[in-house]
Amino acid sequence: MLTTVGGKPLKEALAHAQSRAKRRAFLLVLPLLAFIVVSFIFPIGQMLYKSVSNTGFTISKDFGTGVSTPIMTNLAEWFEENPQGTDPDETAYAALAADLLVLRELKAPGQAGTRINYELSGSRSMFTKAARKAKKLAPPFKESIIDLDEDWADPSLWQAMRTASSAVTVNFYLAALDRKRADDGSVEMVPENRQVYVTLFKRTLILSLMITVICFFLAFPIAHLMATLPMRKSNLLMILVLLPFWTSLLVRTTSWMIVLQSQGVLNDAMVATGILADENRIQMMYNQTGTVIAMTHILLPFMVLPLYSVMSMINPSYVRAARSMGATSWTAFRRIYFPQTVPGIGAGALLVFILSVGYYITPALVGGADGQLISNLIAFHMTKSLNWSLAAALAAILLGAVLLLYWLYDRLIGIDNLKLG
Amino acid sequence: MADSHTKDAFVEFDRVQKSYDGENLVVKDLNLSLPKGEFLTMLGPSGSGKTTCLMMLAGFETATHGDIRLDGQPINNIPPHKRGIGMVFQNYALFPHMTVAENLSFPLEVRKIPKTEREAKVKQVLELVQMGEFGGRRPAQLSGGQQQRIALARALVFEAELVLMDEPLGALDKQLRETMQFEIKRIADDLGITVVYVTHDQTEALTMSDRVAVFEDGRIQQLAPPDELYESPQNSFVAQFIGENNTLEGTVKEIKNGIALVQLDGGGLIDCKPVNVTKAGERTRVSIRPERVEFNKDRLSAEAHTLKAEVLEFIYMGDIFRTRLRVAGKDDFIIKSRNAPDQVRLEPGSQVEIGWMAEDCRALDA
Ligand SMILES: Nc1ncnc2c1ncn2[C@@H]1O[C@H](COP(=O)(O)OP(=O)(O)OP(=O)(O)O)[C@@H](O)[C@H]1O
Ligand SMILES: [Mg+2]
Predict the structure, then answer these.
(1) Is the pTM of the predicted complex or chain greater than 0.80?
(2) What is the ipTM, given to two decimal places?
């Protein structure tokens, strides 16, 4: 073993010498670390947890006193004792009746109904109605409950209640992939007219890919020009490229609406110059075209900047050398220049793609019905339907897809080749 | 200057001018012709237009005026990739994403040379620069000197008859530079190629070249073989630029029998060889090499004019002694003397008389 002159093991001595520097480094990153934990890691963890856990049918929390009370305990017990597929008997209905009484006391029928409603729409009102009449329920409970609403005998409802009676579930992931539990607990596709998410995921990926490719073809020449022009002119170009960053996202998006809508500037101009007949105005807004145009514009700088930074590092003497050796300018570009820009292309493409996969505001404003992306649906479930677990599951799938892409990139090109600026 | 339209000229610059901005001439009226097989060095201070000349020859800049001819053909309108000129760049410009062997076979590939022949040639040229085992490495895995050799090999592999080198040794340390100077010279001589070499290291220029073109401010100040350049500089710029040099200012008193008598501003009369002076009364700057100054009375001829000097400093440098003196009111006059057993070591503070052969002291332009 190597030792120092003093006889200490070298590794130990080195560790001791470095520990001060390490502590210092740790203190320096501590504020950022704390910030990231609070603002990023913790919320992401929460979100991932929400996507597999929903307590709507298991725990009721009184927000005034902060007390949590378990609900639907009797029913949960019955589900535990009777395996999947057992027809609900009198004891099951008796347990339900007891639980409905508890719900009524805790003023919680709404939350329990909402949870079941996620699995089986239209069932929320059954819970509120039944809880209201819970006191009047008398044996035989099976008849009296079915008397309230004959849907209480529906096997799908019982399947939904069985799933919801345990907080932990993968059903939200199933729902996010247009799948659900059949009455017997197996996984099946939802009816065709209700399949939305898979199509949306596909559309999101395809549109993002399209935007990335368009950004690349637009950005490559301009970045090359910027890298080769003299300083003063390239700075001017740089300002023009960065201009979109300086105006508010909303203002930019709104101006695209003004320009692109069917009564908008572009269509008017084309009609006025006779290129287009008045009745053939092109619909460029509130559809996928609008989303692609507006997002390409917004994300273009993220492609230009890494490309520019890589290209400005490429010494012009490489191409000159290739030319002096007998390569035509096309060969020199293809064999010498282009391969050296790949790290910039990778970085730009990754940035643009990841940003557009999660883009929300622009598709929401200019996308119309068929220009919506998955993030618009996540927002819908967060703010309108309040099905946070489904929103979380959708977001988690998106996150997974992006991480997969990142991994693929690392495999194919190598992440250390990434040049962001 | 070079006579234009010479029959055997391989490369020829004919009244070439170059301006980048339309206001300043970077190259002013350049005339230069070199025969096949010559090793010509362009030497000059930074910004004197050396690279610009090379770039015009290689085709990356166009001459604003004048003709450049290669083998008698004007090349102003031939694109760079058709000129067949090998080039070594200062930063080597080895393609970072290719291995050494791929770098070397690139010029052959674009010439559509078959694979087996390519491999043979790459191997051969690697041997030539003594880098046989390095074909599989990336440029980043080579030392500066090794990269240099590969850059040279790449310029040679497609058998260009003309190779341009722009300060190829600029980034190397002194010792490696000397080895490589020798190496480049050897290879150039072996292959019989014509080389235009750019440097601002005068030792490099003197040791390697058949002829040296001294550039200043877009003009060739002197074009001559190294010994002539050193011993007979045509003007005070060249005298100053090449080697160490003592200058004294004064006025020509008379010119007689090919010897000019100069009255120095700081007092004293000296004999000089008139180079850029023609008549009495002209201002002049005289130049004497430090190793041509004599302070041993016995070795000076009796009738020669001498100057009084005070020894200021004596520096022992191993092979030579370097003595600084005050002469004619200037205290940066240097004498170099060989370290020999009988050599006198001048004591600082002592007074000596110094002199020289009239032909070693050149009266140049003021
Ligand atoms: N692309 C260019 N655009 C404008 N001016 C240029 C350009 N390239 C060179 N110059 C100018 O031309 C002059 C000569 O430049 P050049 O590169 O030929 O000098 P050089 O002799 O090679 O100098 P060095 O020894 O420093 O390499 C300089 O004043 C330089 O500023
Ligand atoms: Mg230069």
Answers:
(1) no
(2) 0.77
